[in-house]
Amino acid sequence: MTDINRGHLLTEQNNPHSRNLDQLSTLELVDVFNREDQRTVEAIAHARTALAQAINLTAASLRDGGRLFYVGAGTSGRLGVLDAAECPPTFCTPPELVQGIIAGGAASLLRSSEALEDEAEAGAETIIDHKVTRRDVVVGITAGGTTPYVHGALRAAKQCGADTIFMACVPAEQVPVEADVDIRLIVGPEVLAGSTRLKAGTVTKLALNILSTGVMVKLGKVYGNRMVDVAVTNTKLRDRAIRILCDLTDLDRTEAGDLLERSGLQVKVALVMHLTSVDQQTAETALAEQNGDLRSALANTKQSTSQSAI
Alpha-carbon distance 252 to 241, whole Å? Predict the structure, then answer.
Protein backbone atom coordinates (compact mmCIF):
# COMPACT_ATOMS: atom_id res chain seq x y z
CA MET A 1 0.00 0.00 0.00
CA THR A 2 1.11 3.58 -0.57
CA ASP A 3 2.94 5.47 2.20
CA ILE A 4 0.54 7.12 4.65
CA ASN A 5 1.15 9.96 7.09
CA ARG A 6 0.10 8.15 10.24
CA GLY A 7 -0.14 11.40 12.13
CA HIS A 8 -3.18 12.26 10.01
CA LEU A 9 -5.00 9.04 10.86
CA LEU A 10 -8.12 9.49 12.97
CA THR A 11 -6.86 6.98 15.53
CA GLU A 12 -3.68 9.05 16.08
CA GLN A 13 -5.26 12.46 16.46
CA ASN A 14 -5.58 14.45 19.67
CA ASN A 15 -8.96 14.28 21.43
CA PRO A 16 -10.09 17.81 22.42
CA HIS A 17 -12.30 16.41 25.19
CA SER A 18 -9.37 14.93 27.12
CA ARG A 19 -6.57 17.46 26.64
CA ASN A 20 -6.42 18.13 30.39
CA LEU A 21 -6.71 14.45 31.35
CA ASP A 22 -3.90 14.63 33.90
CA GLN A 23 -5.57 17.57 35.66
CA LEU A 24 -8.99 16.01 36.15
CA SER A 25 -10.36 14.58 39.37
CA THR A 26 -10.74 10.83 39.38
CA LEU A 27 -14.49 11.09 38.96
CA GLU A 28 -14.13 13.57 36.09
CA LEU A 29 -11.64 11.20 34.45
CA VAL A 30 -14.14 8.33 34.64
CA ASP A 31 -16.85 10.58 33.18
CA VAL A 32 -14.67 11.48 30.21
CA PHE A 33 -14.10 7.81 29.44
CA ASN A 34 -17.78 7.05 29.82
CA ARG A 35 -18.85 9.84 27.44
CA GLU A 36 -16.30 8.83 24.84
CA ASP A 37 -17.21 5.16 25.08
CA GLN A 38 -20.75 5.98 23.95
CA ARG A 39 -19.25 6.43 20.48
CA THR A 40 -18.47 2.73 20.22
CA VAL A 41 -22.17 1.84 20.14
CA GLU A 42 -22.83 4.58 17.59
CA ALA A 43 -20.01 3.26 15.42
CA ILE A 44 -21.53 -0.23 15.39
CA ALA A 45 -24.87 1.25 14.29
CA HIS A 46 -23.19 3.04 11.38
CA ALA A 47 -21.42 -0.19 10.34
CA ARG A 48 -24.54 -2.34 10.52
CA THR A 49 -24.82 -2.97 6.77
CA ALA A 50 -21.19 -4.01 6.41
CA LEU A 51 -21.46 -6.25 9.47
CA ALA A 52 -24.53 -7.96 8.02
CA GLN A 53 -22.67 -8.51 4.73
CA ALA A 54 -19.74 -10.01 6.64
CA ILE A 55 -22.03 -12.38 8.53
CA ASN A 56 -23.76 -13.61 5.37
CA LEU A 57 -20.50 -14.03 3.45
CA THR A 58 -18.82 -15.91 6.31
CA ALA A 59 -21.79 -18.15 7.04
CA ALA A 60 -22.00 -19.15 3.38
CA SER A 61 -18.29 -20.01 3.31
CA LEU A 62 -18.38 -22.03 6.53
CA ARG A 63 -21.49 -23.86 5.34
CA ASP A 64 -19.45 -24.82 2.26
CA GLY A 65 -16.67 -26.31 4.36
CA GLY A 66 -14.58 -23.19 4.78
CA ARG A 67 -12.87 -21.68 7.81
CA LEU A 68 -12.78 -18.22 9.39
CA PHE A 69 -9.43 -16.60 10.15
CA TYR A 70 -8.85 -13.42 12.14
CA VAL A 71 -5.50 -11.76 11.44
CA GLY A 72 -4.07 -8.88 13.44
CA ALA A 73 -1.17 -7.51 15.46
CA GLY A 74 -1.06 -6.16 18.99
CA THR A 75 -4.45 -5.44 20.53
CA SER A 76 -6.28 -6.21 17.29
CA GLY A 77 -4.61 -9.60 17.05
CA ARG A 78 -5.34 -10.43 20.68
CA LEU A 79 -9.01 -9.59 20.24
CA GLY A 80 -9.20 -11.87 17.19
CA VAL A 81 -7.56 -14.73 19.07
CA LEU A 82 -9.95 -14.19 22.00
CA ASP A 83 -13.04 -14.34 19.79
CA ALA A 84 -11.79 -17.46 18.03
CA ALA A 85 -10.95 -19.17 21.33
CA GLU A 86 -14.46 -18.59 22.66
CA CYS A 87 -16.26 -20.26 19.74
CA PRO A 88 -15.61 -23.93 20.69
CA PRO A 89 -17.04 -23.72 24.24
CA THR A 90 -19.94 -21.49 23.20
CA PHE A 91 -20.95 -23.20 19.96
CA CYS A 92 -19.21 -26.59 20.15
CA THR A 93 -17.22 -25.82 17.02
CA PRO A 94 -13.99 -27.64 16.18
CA PRO A 95 -10.94 -25.47 17.02
CA GLU A 96 -9.94 -25.26 13.37
CA LEU A 97 -13.24 -23.69 12.25
CA VAL A 98 -12.49 -20.23 13.65
CA GLN A 99 -8.82 -19.37 14.11
CA GLY A 100 -7.03 -16.31 15.41
CA ILE A 101 -3.65 -15.38 13.96
CA ILE A 102 -1.51 -12.77 15.71
CA ALA A 103 1.81 -11.35 14.54
CA GLY A 104 4.51 -13.04 16.60
CA GLY A 105 2.40 -16.06 17.46
CA ALA A 106 1.28 -17.19 20.90
CA ALA A 107 4.08 -15.33 22.68
CA SER A 108 2.55 -12.02 21.57
CA LEU A 109 -0.58 -12.74 23.58
CA LEU A 110 1.31 -12.20 26.83
CA ARG A 111 4.23 -10.00 25.86
CA SER A 112 4.03 -7.10 23.42
CA SER A 113 5.97 -7.62 20.19
CA GLU A 114 4.60 -4.73 18.18
CA ALA A 115 7.63 -4.49 15.85
CA LEU A 116 6.45 -7.69 14.18
CA GLU A 117 3.42 -5.88 12.75
CA ASP A 118 5.69 -4.15 10.22
CA GLU A 119 6.45 -7.42 8.41
CA ALA A 120 4.02 -7.75 5.49
CA GLU A 121 5.87 -10.84 4.28
CA ALA A 122 5.23 -12.57 7.61
CA GLY A 123 1.52 -11.88 7.21
CA ALA A 124 1.54 -13.45 3.77
CA GLU A 125 3.53 -16.44 5.00
CA THR A 126 1.07 -17.23 7.76
CA ILE A 127 -1.74 -17.43 5.20
CA ILE A 128 0.30 -19.93 3.22
CA ASP A 129 1.23 -21.85 6.38
CA HIS A 130 -2.47 -22.20 7.29
CA LYS A 131 -3.22 -23.50 3.78
CA VAL A 132 -5.95 -20.93 3.18
CA THR A 133 -8.15 -21.75 0.17
CA ARG A 134 -11.00 -20.20 -1.81
CA ARG A 135 -13.48 -21.65 0.69
CA ASP A 136 -12.06 -19.67 3.59
CA VAL A 137 -12.68 -16.17 4.94
CA VAL A 138 -9.87 -13.96 6.24
CA VAL A 139 -10.67 -10.97 8.43
CA GLY A 140 -7.89 -8.40 8.67
CA ILE A 141 -8.17 -6.38 11.90
CA THR A 142 -6.18 -3.18 12.29
CA ALA A 143 -7.40 -0.18 14.29
CA GLY A 144 -5.34 2.38 12.38
CA GLY A 145 -5.82 0.52 9.11
CA THR A 146 -2.16 0.52 8.09
CA THR A 147 -0.62 -2.57 9.72
CA PRO A 148 1.66 -4.17 7.07
CA TYR A 149 1.29 -7.65 8.61
CA VAL A 150 -2.47 -7.49 8.08
CA HIS A 151 -2.24 -6.11 4.55
CA GLY A 152 0.28 -8.78 3.61
CA ALA A 153 -2.09 -11.45 4.91
CA LEU A 154 -5.08 -10.00 3.03
CA ARG A 155 -3.18 -9.81 -0.25
CA ALA A 156 -2.07 -13.41 0.11
CA ALA A 157 -5.60 -14.47 1.01
CA LYS A 158 -6.99 -12.84 -2.13
CA GLN A 159 -4.36 -14.61 -4.21
CA CYS A 160 -5.58 -17.91 -2.69
CA GLY A 161 -9.13 -17.02 -3.75
CA ALA A 162 -10.39 -16.57 -0.18
CA ASP A 163 -13.02 -14.00 0.74
CA THR A 164 -11.60 -11.04 2.64
CA ILE A 165 -13.02 -8.72 5.26
CA PHE A 166 -11.28 -5.57 6.47
CA MET A 167 -12.00 -4.09 9.91
CA ALA A 168 -10.52 -0.71 10.89
CA CYS A 169 -11.30 2.42 12.89
CA VAL A 170 -10.30 4.98 10.26
CA PRO A 171 -12.39 6.28 7.33
CA ALA A 172 -11.96 4.59 3.96
CA GLU A 173 -10.64 7.82 2.43
CA GLN A 174 -7.69 7.77 4.86
CA VAL A 175 -6.80 4.13 4.21
CA PRO A 176 -8.49 2.70 1.09
CA VAL A 177 -8.43 -1.09 0.89
CA GLU A 178 -9.64 -3.70 -1.56
CA ALA A 179 -11.69 -6.27 0.33
CA ASP A 180 -14.96 -8.10 -0.22
CA VAL A 181 -16.41 -6.41 2.86
CA ASP A 182 -15.02 -3.18 4.34
CA ILE A 183 -16.05 -2.54 7.96
CA ARG A 184 -15.20 0.91 9.31
CA LEU A 185 -15.74 1.45 13.02
CA ILE A 186 -15.37 5.19 13.46
CA VAL A 187 -15.01 6.09 17.14
CA GLY A 188 -12.83 9.17 16.80
CA PRO A 189 -9.55 10.01 18.60
CA GLU A 190 -8.78 8.12 21.79
CA VAL A 191 -9.01 9.62 25.29
CA LEU A 192 -5.32 8.79 25.59
CA ALA A 193 -4.05 9.90 22.18
CA GLY A 194 -3.08 6.96 19.99
CA SER A 195 -3.92 4.23 22.53
CA THR A 196 -6.16 2.08 20.36
CA ARG A 197 -6.65 -0.51 23.11
CA LEU A 198 -9.34 1.92 24.34
CA LYS A 199 -12.33 2.89 22.14
CA ALA A 200 -10.91 1.16 19.08
CA GLY A 201 -10.36 -2.02 21.09
CA THR A 202 -13.84 -1.85 22.60
CA VAL A 203 -15.61 -1.32 19.28
CA THR A 204 -13.56 -4.09 17.67
CA LYS A 205 -14.64 -6.50 20.42
CA LEU A 206 -18.26 -5.47 19.87
CA ALA A 207 -17.96 -6.03 16.13
CA LEU A 208 -16.33 -9.44 16.53
CA ASN A 209 -19.04 -10.45 19.02
CA ILE A 210 -21.67 -9.62 16.41
CA LEU A 211 -19.79 -11.25 13.53
CA SER A 212 -19.05 -14.61 15.15
CA THR A 213 -22.38 -14.90 16.96
CA GLY A 214 -24.30 -13.86 13.85
CA VAL A 215 -22.48 -16.49 11.80
CA MET A 216 -23.26 -19.20 14.34
CA VAL A 217 -26.93 -18.20 14.36
CA LYS A 218 -26.96 -18.57 10.57
CA LEU A 219 -25.31 -21.98 10.89
CA GLY A 220 -28.12 -23.22 13.14
CA LYS A 221 -26.13 -23.29 16.37
CA VAL A 222 -28.72 -21.19 18.19
CA TYR A 223 -32.38 -21.95 18.94
CA GLY A 224 -34.34 -18.84 19.83
CA ASN A 225 -31.69 -17.10 21.89
CA ARG A 226 -30.31 -20.28 23.48
CA MET A 227 -26.82 -21.63 22.86
CA VAL A 228 -28.07 -25.13 22.17
CA ASP A 229 -24.70 -26.21 20.79
CA VAL A 230 -22.94 -25.43 24.06
CA ALA A 231 -20.06 -27.78 24.85
CA VAL A 232 -20.81 -29.45 28.20
CA THR A 233 -17.25 -29.50 29.53
CA ASN A 234 -17.58 -28.33 33.14
CA THR A 235 -20.06 -27.91 35.99
CA LYS A 236 -21.17 -24.44 34.91
CA LEU A 237 -21.85 -25.50 31.34
CA ARG A 238 -23.62 -28.65 32.46
CA ASP A 239 -25.90 -26.53 34.63
CA ARG A 240 -26.55 -24.23 31.68
CA ALA A 241 -27.40 -27.20 29.46
CA ILE A 242 -29.86 -28.54 32.02
CA ARG A 243 -31.49 -25.12 32.39
CA ILE A 244 -31.89 -24.89 28.62
CA LEU A 245 -33.57 -28.30 28.54
CA CYS A 246 -35.88 -27.37 31.42
CA ASP A 247 -36.84 -24.08 29.77
CA LEU A 248 -37.56 -25.65 26.39
CA THR A 249 -39.36 -28.76 27.64
CA ASP A 250 -41.70 -29.83 30.44
CA LEU A 251 -38.92 -31.60 32.33
CA ASP A 252 -37.66 -30.92 35.84
CA ARG A 253 -33.91 -30.74 36.59
CA THR A 254 -33.54 -34.41 37.43
CA GLU A 255 -35.33 -35.51 34.27
CA ALA A 256 -33.40 -32.99 32.17
CA GLY A 257 -30.10 -34.24 33.61
CA ASP A 258 -31.01 -37.81 32.74
CA LEU A 259 -31.99 -36.80 29.21
CA LEU A 260 -28.71 -34.92 28.80
CA GLU A 261 -26.77 -38.04 29.77
CA ARG A 262 -28.75 -40.23 27.36
CA SER A 263 -28.05 -37.76 24.55
CA GLY A 264 -24.31 -37.98 25.02
CA LEU A 265 -24.22 -34.50 26.59
CA GLN A 266 -25.58 -32.95 23.38
CA VAL A 267 -28.33 -30.41 24.05
CA LYS A 268 -29.68 -30.36 20.48
CA VAL A 269 -29.78 -34.14 20.33
CA ALA A 270 -31.54 -34.19 23.70
CA LEU A 271 -34.19 -31.76 22.47
CA VAL A 272 -34.89 -33.76 19.31
CA MET A 273 -35.09 -36.96 21.36
CA HIS A 274 -37.58 -35.53 23.83
CA LEU A 275 -39.70 -33.34 21.56
CA THR A 276 -40.11 -35.96 18.83
CA SER A 277 -39.91 -39.16 20.93
CA VAL A 278 -36.97 -40.71 19.08
CA ASP A 279 -33.74 -42.36 20.27
CA GLN A 280 -30.26 -40.79 20.27
CA GLN A 281 -29.15 -42.26 16.96
CA THR A 282 -32.30 -41.13 15.16
CA ALA A 283 -31.94 -37.64 16.63
CA GLU A 284 -28.30 -37.40 15.58
CA THR A 285 -29.19 -38.52 12.05
CA ALA A 286 -32.02 -35.99 11.84
CA LEU A 287 -29.68 -33.18 12.86
CA ALA A 288 -26.95 -34.31 10.45
CA GLU A 289 -29.43 -34.32 7.57
CA GLN A 290 -30.28 -30.68 8.36
CA ASN A 291 -26.64 -29.60 8.83
CA GLY A 292 -27.21 -29.25 12.56
CA ASP A 293 -30.20 -26.91 12.29
CA LEU A 294 -32.37 -27.80 15.28
CA ARG A 295 -35.55 -26.10 14.10
CA SER A 296 -35.46 -27.89 10.74
CA ALA A 297 -34.55 -31.21 12.34
CA LEU A 298 -37.50 -30.97 14.72
CA ALA A 299 -39.93 -30.11 11.92
CA ASN A 300 -38.73 -32.91 9.65
CA THR A 301 -38.65 -35.52 12.41
CA LYS A 302 -42.15 -34.63 13.58
CA GLN A 303 -43.38 -34.87 10.00
CA SER A 304 -41.72 -38.24 9.49
CA THR A 305 -43.12 -39.55 12.77
CA SER A 306 -46.61 -38.40 11.86
CA GLN A 307 -46.44 -40.03 8.44
CA SER A 308 -45.19 -43.29 9.99
CA ALA A 309 -48.15 -43.32 12.37
CA ILE A 310 -50.69 -43.12 9.51
Answer: 13
173 is catalytic: no
Q: Give catalytic status of residue 117 as yes or no.
A: yes
State the SS3 of 99-131. EEEECCHHHHHCCCCHHHHHCHHHHHHHHHHCC
Mean pLDDT score, 160-185: 97
- The separation between CA 154 and the C-alpha centre of its own chain, rounded to angstroms, equals 18
Q: What angle do CA 284, 287, 290 make, to 5 degrees?
A: 150
Q: For residue range 4-37, what is the model confidence (pLDDT) as tens digits?
A: 666 689 999 999 999 999 999 999 999 999 999 9
pTM for the full predicted model: 0.91
pLDDT at 2: 47
Catalytic residue among 12, 36, 42, 86: 86
**Which residue among 36, 117, 190, 284 is the active-site one?**
117
Give 221-250 pLDDT, tens digit per residue.
999 999 999 889 999 999 999 999 999 999
User: For the residues 106-131, what does the mean pLDDT come to?
Assistant: 89
Q: Which domains does the chain have, with CATH numbers?
A: 6-218 (3.40.50.10490), 235-309 (1.10.8.1080)
